Amino acid sequence: MYNFLTGPMAWFSFLIFFMGILIRSFLYIKGLDSNIDRVTYRVNTSFGVKEAVRSIFSWLLPFSTRGWRTQPLMTTLFFVFHVSLLTSTIFLNAHNMILQERWGFSIITIPNVVSDYLTIAVLVTACLLIIRRIKLPHVKILTKPSDYFILLVSIAPFLTGFLAFHQFGNYTFWMLTHIISGELLLIVIPFTKLSHSFLFFFSRAQLGMDYGIKRGGMKHQKGMTW
Amino acid sequence: MNENIFCTPNPVNDKDALDALLRDKRGQQYYDEMKRLKVDTAALKKLVNDTCRSRIRTWLEICAHCGMCADACAFYLSNDKDPEQVPSYKIQSTLGKIVKQKGDVDNAFMRYAMDVAWGKCTCCNRCSLYCPFGIDMGVLMSYLRGLLFSQGFVPWEMKIGSGMHRIFRAQMDVTVEDWVDTCEWMIEEYEDEWPRLKIPVDKKNADIMYTVNAREAKHYPDDIAEAAVLFSIAGENWTVPSEGWEETSLAMFAGDWEGAKLQVKSVYDAMDRLKPKQMVVTECGHAYRATVIEGPYWAGLKSGKTPVETLHYVEWVAKALRSGKLKIDPAKKIKEPVTYHDSCNYIRNGGLSQYGREIMSYIAEDFREMTPNGEHNFCCGGGGGLNGIGKYRKERNTGQKVKRDQILATGAKLVITPCHNCWDAIRDLEEVYKIGIRWSFLKPLLLDMVIVPEHMKPQKEENEEE
Question: What is the pTM assigned to this prediction?
Fold first, then answer.
C-alpha cells in the first residue's frame, strides 16, 4: 500500500497536478481575445506588463493595497493561512528528506518546531475562515457546500500530517491518510476553485493589463492605486 | 396569446417604432409584455459560447466567495449591508447561472437578472479594486447587460436610448440640423456679452475638434456657449463637427454593442473628415468611457485608441491653466469650502484623477477631498444609466446615501461635478436628501473667474454712444 501510494500514485498525482496547471494556463492565455476582452494585449504591451506586475505584487504583499488595509482582520487571516500553508509544506524537513532520497537534492528546510506551529496556524486560520463563512451574512450568502469541501481537502494533509508526526494513535494509519489526502489535493487543484493558486497570477495580470493599456494606464502619473 | 409589440429581442431601428415606444408612457405596456417575452435559450447558449472566453469564465470560476468585494459596493453599503447586494452574489446569481446552465433559463430569471444588472449595479468597477483576484464585476455586469439586451430584457428607457443612437446617432432626437442651429442660436444669444464669439462648424485641420453630450444641444445649450467662450479666451483653433458631434452612449449602458459601434463610428468618421490634431470631450464621464476608452474596440481599431488623440475636458482645462492660456483672477477664486466628485468613468476607468486636483489648485482656496477619492471614489449612485431608468428610481435614491455621507463629511456646500450623469445624480441627491449643497460643472465656475483679454470684451463705449 505504502509503496503504491508513494510510487505510481505519487507519480500520477504530480503528473495530473503539473499537466493540469500547464494545460489550464495555456487555455487561459489562448482564450484571451483583444476584441472581446477589449484590451490590446499586443499593442502598447509594455504599459500592460508594467501594470500587470504592479497588480500582482501589490496584492501579494500584506496591507499594500487599499483592499487589504480596509479589512485588516481578513487580511491577517488570509496571509497567515496561505503563508503557513505554503512554507510548512515546501520547507518541511521530512518532505525534503524524501526529495534527497529520491532525487538527490533538497532545498532549505525549517526546524520541525516551526513547521509544527505553522501547521497549527493553518488549522486555526482554516477554522476561523469556516466560522467567518457561517457567521458573516455577506460571506454566508456566497458560500456553497463546495467551498467547505475545498477547504477541508486543503487542510486534510496538514491535520493528518500533524497527527502522524506526533504519533497520535496509529502512526501508519495517519501517515497513509496524510499521503492520500496530499495526493487528492494535488489532483483536485487544477479542476476546482483551488486552481486560483496559479490562475490568481493570470487573472491579476489580466486586470493589470486592462488598466495599464486601456483604462488610464497611459495617462496615469503613478500607475493604478491598487 | 398576443404577439409582443414593444418588448421584443429586436432593437429599435426606425423612427415610427421609436415614436410608438415613446408613447407607451413609463413603459407600462412594454413591461407588461416583458412578462410574456420568451427566452430564446438556443440563441443565448450560442451567444455565450461565442463570447464568453477564458477571462470571464475564469473570473466566474475562481471567485473564492470571500466577500471582500462587499464593502467596495456603494449599493451594498447604502442598503444597510444587504447580503443580496454583495457584488459577487449579484453576478453569480445572474451571469454565473446563465453560463453554468448554458443559457437554459426562463423568463422570470431574465427579469430578475435585468433588475440586478440595471437596478443594483452602475458598472462603476470599484469592486475590481477590492477583489484579491482582480475579478471585475463591473465588466461582468456589462457583459450580462449585452446578453440581456440580445434577448430583449432591457429597461424601457435603455431600449429607447439604444434606438435613439441607431436612428439619430445621438442619445436624444437631435438631428444634424438641430445641432448646427443650436450652435448658431447660441452665438446670437451671447453676442451682446461676447461680440466676437464663434462656434466654427466643420473647420478642417483645426487644433481641437470639440464634441458634446446631446443633452447640451437639447436641454443645456448654454454649456456649448460657455465652452466656446473658454476656447476663445484660450485662443484655441477649434471646431465642432456637424455630424459625429455626440459623444455619449446609452447604447453602451443598454448592452447594445452594435448600436454603440454605430455611435462611435460617427465620431471617428468626423475625425477622418476634419483631420483635427486633437479631440476634446465635454464634461461627461460615460461619453469619454464610450468613445475614447471602449469605442476603439467596438469600431475594430487595432490600436485600441481613437483615430486622433483625445482629451477629456478636465485635461484640456488643466493644461490651459498650466500653460497660462486660461488665467484665473486671484480675487475671484472660490473662497468657500469646495469638494470635487470623481467620475468613475474617466477617473477609475480613465486614469485622469490628477487633473481634477490640478484644476482645484488653481481655482479653489479651500479644496476638500472626499474620503476615499480618486480611483477609489464611490459612484454618485446614478451611473451606468441608472439615473434615467424610472423603474429603478427608488434603488438609485437609496444607492446615493454613500455619496451623500461622503459629501457631508467634507463640510463643503459646493460640489464640482465635471460629468453630466454625476451632475444629475448630485442634483437629485439634493432634491431627495436636502443636505443644502450646490453643484456645478467646471465651465460656469471658470467663466466667473477667468481673466478676459481686452479684445474679447464688449466695446461698451461704442454701445453706450448708440
Answer: 0.96
